[in-house]
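JOB MANIFEST
job_type = single_chain_structure
chain_count = 1
residues = 497
[input]
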Amino acid sequence: MPRLATAAALTAAVLATAGPAATSLAAATAATAPASASAAPASSAHLTDAGVRVGVQSPSARDVCPDTALILTVPGTTPAVGGTGTVTVTDTATGEVADRVDLADPASYQRTIGGAVNADGTAHEFSYHPVTVDGDTAAIHLHRTLAEGHRYRVTVGPGVVTALTAPVSWSFRVRSRLPVGRTLTVDAAGHADYCTVQGAIDAVPAGTAVPHTIRVRPGTYTELDWVPAGKPHLTVEGTGRDPGATVLEYDNNNTFNSAHAVGICPRQRIPGHDDNNCWRGSFNVEADDFRLHDLTLHNTTAYGGSQAEAFRGNADRIVLDRVRLLSYQDTLRLQGRGFVTDSYIEGDVDFTWGVGSALIQDSELRSLHAGYVTQVRNDATHPGYVFLRDRLTAADTVPAGSVYLGRIDPTVYPYSQVLFIDTAMGPHIAPAGWKLDHADCSQASDLRFLEYGSTDLDGAPLDTAARLSCSGRLTSGQAALWSDPRTVLSGWDPERR
């Protein structure tokens, strides 16, 4: 289950409605900022008559971001998500229901995200968690953003969380002027243009060739994100002192959103192979010329919980700079040209993979269990993955010789190319280095599993004599050629802007 911030992380105010459920100004705890996040507390905070603090992600109930979560804090309890109960958000001017969550209705666990569409052009419905809990605080995540300048009344019925035994109600107003311009800001505490990264992504105009930047303030944001193809030239950047200060997390995975998906993936690089596996990442990019830096993407799917990308890039010219990517299986997937630098990637099985061409340099790749660092499925016309000046490390519990540099079935993907150049490797890397699935080297004549200058973690040359017989070593000239981004990325130099 996605993690919420502690109840002390953030205080926000809402206007409580007069009535039996709530009678005064109330305070709420934000769902997504860590304990270190700063926020101004509400000037007067009161519990409802039901003994529950209620609110939104904002220091003012009169200036709320349109993508706010609704917050319930039940002091002194450890609530769990209920299986019944409803949340109703009503426009007070029109009386119309703006959104409704019914925990007894399976449809309430579905929503569209970021304009994602199926191959037939219909809107894709993702499975999601409408209510998440951390400690004594529950966050209710609506199906859609709210309208600017509108005032809303919220009623949360008993059963939404187990500790809520009587209905609670309150009101708030969405800010009247939403931001315009090429730079948008995000803050879980409501001190910015939007409360979620997805809210800011949605606000970027579609079809524009003008670069836009989303600046994300430190905090932990529990959300599933999707950048649609029509929003190229987008940069998402954390503003904290280091990438760990800004965390985007969700527990999306193959079991949750792909195994039984209704809707075929669009823009498939290998038609038929990728019918449903585009829906399972926690941060997904379909737009070209995308940049991400100075933050962490964490797919919080539990160990053994199926394939679960932290970042899935199904586009061209993607740059990941000073990022942390955390998951177990399939952590990073690149389907076009991609460049990763000065970053940290952890996982276990195939935790860097895809059909794209990628240069991953000056980074640490950490194995959490026995497994495989790569599974690269490029075709004959495109380079695969090149690792340059990286460090391959492992958790203390990973046995020596239990991790392979890569694996592939050459009868299905005969042109797989993976190169490690001047890379330091820990003792967890198997002496054979590489593994073929369902085949042997007699069926791998076009395979390109190559190394140059491999060392141990102390910098001593590594003995590669026991490597898979159909793998090989680069010459110094070949290593120099493949160390050039323009060679790996077919003429694109991501370090020039």
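[summary]
Residues 1-177 form one domain.
Confidence is low (pLDDT under 50) at residues 1-46.
exit_status = 0
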